[in-house]
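Hey, resending since the last one bounced:
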Amino acid sequence: MDIIDISKVEGTRFPAGRRTKVFIGAHSPIQAKNFVMGFVELEPNGKVPLHSHEQEEVYVILEGEGKIRVGEEVSKVRSGVAVYVPPHTEHELINDSHQLMKMMFTYSPAGIVSHWEEEKKGLIK
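The structure tokens again:
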């Protein structure tokens, strides 16, 4: 049995105002063959910048509120909401509140999404 304390995963700080902790799949403590799962804290005015990738993905908002864009649609999100993102569809999550937003994501198939490196290099904001 693999068990991980998410609070002990350091994660990666991104310039757009968030910390992403991948704890299953990719470069993480628990490996999975077919999916990746992680936890994200978005600071006030922080975001997951507009991007797309081959994986289908789900965001689950655990705490806070903001807005999400999936394709051409924009919607408000809050704690308790799950959002499905189809493969190859541009999407962006913005914490437009004054409080921390927490969310979990899962995508499949497993692998490293290219937008993380692009964002760290300043190619997307």
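The chain has a mean pLDDT of 92.

Sorry for the duplicate.
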